[in-house]
């Protein structure tokens, strides 16, 4: 069997296990198929996800379930206004030995895990939010001049309340850019909500069990990067990202007039990885244009900002992104 056949066999085998994992998650997370798909795609791509929604929509339950199903050690930080960076990263304490000598010992904070739930991350001050920057990008933290490596794999799934709620702080742009995608958690439809109340208020409740372990997930992340991507998909990703930058020559008038700043190269990197992950979970051997369209909004929306005038006109970033995606689709059809 040659290398290409080996790759196909590995992708097909992984697709089957991912289907099993999604089925396991669906036992506890009802009516949120798109949310589950996007968060699992972020984990397959080796990145982080930001979940935005009102309280009570199952965000915390989703993260806890994924920790079990993917076989990862989980940690949780409840972000509050008085939370300090040391409460996240850990700190050095001075200890005295039996012989009277003194030395510093590093006590790890809750960030030292494989799947970190940063709950209500925007309730903490910007200073505390920024404590996660190095951890999310470099998978390490520096305390008192010493660098400490985090566990592998390391993922942050952060929940955020809508900014309109009292007691919230907007996340710094540099930190937002480190999330592969923003997942909007909406209210379930009526049928799904009926299933939820029946499944969660009875004497017995469905429990999740492990489908992956740490080594399995790391192997899946490596396999994902070997997945082929067609030249047309690469060009579509570049066209989309560059068209959302107001100072780019390819940007449409709506972007030039309404967007203050657009996505950087990390957005294109995220789309490359996430389109592969979505195809993999669908049992396909390579991503297609539909994967780019489906992921455009969650990948780009937190990497852009509206101008003051656009906000005053009541425009939305989601609508602008959808318009850009629509124009790309028309161009593709014409070609």
Automatic annotation (TrEMBL):
Gene Ontology MF, one: ATP hydrolysis activity
Extent of the signal sequence: none
Domain ChlI/MoxR AAA lid intervals: 255-314
Domain of life: Bacteria
InterPro entries attached to this UniProt entry: ATPase_AAA-3, CbbQ/NirQ/NorQ/GpvN, ChlI/MoxR_AAA_lid, P-loop_NTPase
Domain ATPase AAA-3: 48-181
Keyword match ATP-binding: yes
Family matches, as Gene3D superfamilies: Magnesium chelatase subunit I, C-Terminal domain, P-loop containing nucleotide triphosphate hydrolases
Family membership: Belongs to the MoxR family.
Protein name: ATPase, MoxR family protein
């Amino acid at each position: 069997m040659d290398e290409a056949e080996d790759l196909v066999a590995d992708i097909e085998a992984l697709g089957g296990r991912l289907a099993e994992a999604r089925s396991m998650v669906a036992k506890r997370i009802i009516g949120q198929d798109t949310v589950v798909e996007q968060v699992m795609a972020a984990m397959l791509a080796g990145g982080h996800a930001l979940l935005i929604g009102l309280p009570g929509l199952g965000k915390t339950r989703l993260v806890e379930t994924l920790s079990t199903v993917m076989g990862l050690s989980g940690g949780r930080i409840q972000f509050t206004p008085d939370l300090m960076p040391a409460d996240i990263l850990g700190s050095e304490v001075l200890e005295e030995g039996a012989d009277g000598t003194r030395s510093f010992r590093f006590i790890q904070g809750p960030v030292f895990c494989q799947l970190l739930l940063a709950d209500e991350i925007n309730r903490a001050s910007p200073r505390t939010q920024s404590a996660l920057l190095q951890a999310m990008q470099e998978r390490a933290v520096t305390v008192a001049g010493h660098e400490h490596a985090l566990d592998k794999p390391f993922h942050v799934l952060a929940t955020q309340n809508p900014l309109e709620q009292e007691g919230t702080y907007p996340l710094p742009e540099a930190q937002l850019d480190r999330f592969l995608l923003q997942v909007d958690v909406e209210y379930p439809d009526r049928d799904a909500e009926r299933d939820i109340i029946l499944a969660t208020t009875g004497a017995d409740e469905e429990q999740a069990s492990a489908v992956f372990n740490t080594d399995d997930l790391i192997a899946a992340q490596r396999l994902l990067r070997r997945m082929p991507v067609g030249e047309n998909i690469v060009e579509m990703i570049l066209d989309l990202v560059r068209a959302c930058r107001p100072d780019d020559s390819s940007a449409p008038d709506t972007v030039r007039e309404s967007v203050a700043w657009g996505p950087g190269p990390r957005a294109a990197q995220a789309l490359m990885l996430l389109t592969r992950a979505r195809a993999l979970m669908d049992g396909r051997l390579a991503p297609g244009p539909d994967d780019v369209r489906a992921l455009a909004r969650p990948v780009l929306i937190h990497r852009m900002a509206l101008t003051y005038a656009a906000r005053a006109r009541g425009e939305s970033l989601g609508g602008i992104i959808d318009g850009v995606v629509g124009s790309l689709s028309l161009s593709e059809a014409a070609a």
